[in-house]
């Protein structure tokens, strides 16, 4: 009985893994990118000046370390 339960659990895990792989698979896009009405460069908004004040101190030093956020 213990082996049967283990086999059922393994089969369920395998099925869920296969289904998740199929769901996340590549989809074929039949639209031709050359047929788009607007170029992508025109749809990107121009950069605007940030209206938030810079509150970092002038003497902020990380001793040569790079800090990346997202």
Strand content: under 5%
Structural class: mainly alpha
The coarse silhouette is elongated
Assembly context of the chains: single chain
Number of alpha- plus pi-helical segments: 2
Mean model confidence by pLDDT:
77
| Poorly predicted tracts of residues | none
State the end-to-end CA separation.
50 Å
Largest sheet properties: none
Succession of helices and strands: HH
Computed over alpha carbons, the radius of gyration is 26 Å
State the share of residues found in helices, binned by percent. Answer: 25-40%
Count the E strands.
0
How are the SSEs ordered, and which strands pair?
Blueprint: H1 2-23, H2 40-43
Written description of the protein model:
The protein has 70 residues and is mostly helical. The chain is 37% helix and 0% strand. It contains two helices and no strands. It has helices spanning 2-23, 40-43. It is elongated, with a radius of gyration of 26 Å. The chain starts with a helix and ends in a 27-residue tail after the last helix.
